[in-house]
Write a structure and sequence with these properties.
By secondary structure, this protein is α/β, with parallel strands linked by helices. The protein has one domain: Flavin prenyltransferase-like (Rossmann fold, 3-Layer(aba) Sandwich). 41% of the residues lie in helices and 16% in strands. The chain has a six-stranded parallel sheet, with helices on both faces. Helix 6 links the parallel strand 5 and strand 6. Helix 1 crosses helix 7. The radius of gyration is 15 Å and the shape is globular.
């Protein structure tokens, strides 16, 4: 058991899918909430972050408490003995989803996700693709049956969002909810 005074620890993966801003914003919010974040970014995500957000990957890494290399299978987060509240892959590409669904842990992001499933910790995949093929749906089903949560970044309008930031914050808030982290990032239904 961890000491009650220790920060809540979350593993964050940013995979190579559009909407890299979701991963960046998640890290920003987690930092404001005082969460301890352990980050791994895929090689494709590095390019997408710079293309879509105009930010340097080095600056995104600085948002995390600790960042790891994508191929570093000796990193702490590759072991079940490394205690965490869980992991989020945000956004989660269909390639990464397929790796998680099949237990194909050939990189640190997939290994950390596999560890969360085997240790029965929260694993949230913010799956970003549309439309979905039957293969995508079957992979989502396999991850769900294994204990993971599929949380597509679905647009909502009931809270009268006025900007992309509002829409993004809604997804971040819902993700934090699933991880069991109290937050006031988005307007809830009242």
């Amino acid at each position: 058991m961890r000491d009650a005074s220790e920060k809540e620890r979350i593993i964050v993966g940013i995979s190579g899918s559009s909407c890299a801003i979701l991963g960046v914003r998640f890290l920003e919010v987690a930092k404001k909430l005082g969460l301890e974040t352990h980050l791994v970014i895929s090689e494709t995500a590095e390019k997408i972050i710079e293309h879509e957000t105009g930010r340097k990957v080095s600056d995104v890494r600085k948002l995390a408490t600790k960042a790891y290399g994508y191929r570093d299978l000796f990193a702490a987060i590759a072991s079940g003995s490394f205690q965490t509240k869980g992991m989020v892959i945000i956004p989660c590409s269909m390639k990464t989803l397929a790796g998680v669904a099949s237990g194909y842990s050939d990189n640190l992001m997939l290994r950390a996700a596999d560890v969360c499933l085997k240790e029965r910790r929260k694993l949230v995949l913010v799956a970003r693709e549309t439309p979905l093929s039957l293969i995508h749906i079957e992979n989502m089903k396999r991850v769900t049956l294994a204990g993971g949560v599929i949380l597509p970044p679905v647009m909502t309008l009931y809270a009268k969002q006025k900007s992309i930031e509002d829409l993004t914050n809604h997804v971040i808030g819902k993700t934090l909810d699933v991880l069991g982290i109290d937050n006031k990032v988005y307007n809830r239904w009242s």
